[in-house]
């Protein structure tokens, strides 16, 4: 079966994080993506990320999807689980903050995790983390088998849950230049329906 790897560049990438401690600051040009609460601090971070799914053939049946993030730094003292939720807001990479998803547009609830902001009651993927993760690739298996099931058109929020306490990690963003091979990637294995050529008798 065909395998597609989507690996955005700083130009094509669409990712950022939001920070409760700096609620009006945008991090869309940052080299990093933070998720969770840094141990010993009082602020929470959540990551927003979107891939160009038009690269997947429209009639494809998906058999496997893996979201991969490269871990640079462990700031956690707890074992925890990170969840991937489908977003409902048209957030803008260079504008989104803890308080807004784009200029002049507030999240329903600051932090972007309410019924009108994302599918907070369900998730399409998760990964368990320990309090002593080593640096390197961390993989999130995603469950949908169709393009429509993967994304509502607005990408995903990755969030520690449910407590968001002493469980932060720092990952590489699509803007990272020190090592381009560490940028976020999405690996999709899919199949296409059979087609039959017309036969002239």
CATH architecture: Sandwich
According to CATH, the fold-level topology is: Jelly Rolls
* Pattern of helices and strands: EEEEEEEEEEHEEE
Overall 3D shape: globular
Helix content: under 10%
- Please tally the helical runs, counting DSSP H or I stretches of 4 or more residues: 1
State the separation between the terminal residues, measured CA to CA. Answer: 33 Å
* CATH class call: Mainly Beta
What is the structural class? mainly beta
**Compute the gyration radius: what is it?**
18 Å
The low-confidence runs, each spanning 5 or more residues with pLDDT under 50, are 196-201
Number of domains: 1
- The average pLDDT score comes to 93
Please give the number of β-strands. 13
Summarize this structure as a short list of keywords or feature phrases:
1 helix, two-stranded antiparallel ribbon, 201 residues, disordered C terminus, globular, eleven-stranded antiparallel sheet, mainly beta, Jelly Rolls
Can you walk through the features of this model?
The chain has one domain (3-191): Jelly Rolls (Sandwich), CATH 2.60.120. It starts with a strand and ends in a 10-residue tail after the last strand. The strands form two sheets. Strands 1, 2, 3, 4, 5, 6, 9, 10, 11, 12 and 13 form an eleven-stranded antiparallel β-sheet that branches. The chain has one helix at residues 147-150, and strands spanning 3-6, 14-19, 32-37, 44-50, 61-76, 80-86, 100-102, 105-106, 125-129, 136-142, 156-161, 167-172, 185-191. By secondary structure, the chain is mostly beta strands. It has one helix and 13 strands; from the N terminus they run ββββββββββαβββ.
């Amino acid at each position: 079966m065909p395998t597609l790897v989507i690996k955005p560049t700083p130009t094509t990438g669409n990712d950022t994080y939001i920070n409760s401690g700096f609620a009006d600051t945008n991090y869309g040009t940052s080299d990093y993506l933070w998720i969770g609460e840094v141990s010993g601090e009082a602020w929470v971070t959540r990551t927003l990320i979107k891939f160009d799914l038009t690269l997947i053939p429209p009639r494809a049946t998906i058999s496997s999807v893996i979201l991969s993030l490269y871990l640079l730094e462990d700031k956690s003292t707890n074992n925890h689980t990170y969840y991937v939720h489908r977003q409902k807001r048209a957030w803008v990479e260079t504008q989104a903050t803890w308080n807004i998803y784009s200029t002049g547009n507030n999240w329903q609830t600051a932090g972007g995790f309410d019924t009108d902001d994302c599918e907070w009651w369900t998730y399409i993927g998760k990964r368990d983390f320990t309090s002593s993760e080593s640096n390197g690739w961390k993989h999130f298996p995603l469950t949908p088998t169709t393009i429509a099931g993967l994304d509502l058109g607005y990408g995903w929020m990755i969030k520690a849950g449910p407590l968001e306490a002493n469980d932060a990690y720092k990952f590489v963003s699509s803007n990272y230049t020190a090592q381009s091979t560490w940028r976020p990637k999405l690996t999709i294995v899919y199949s296409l329906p059979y087609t039959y050529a017309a036969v002239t008798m």
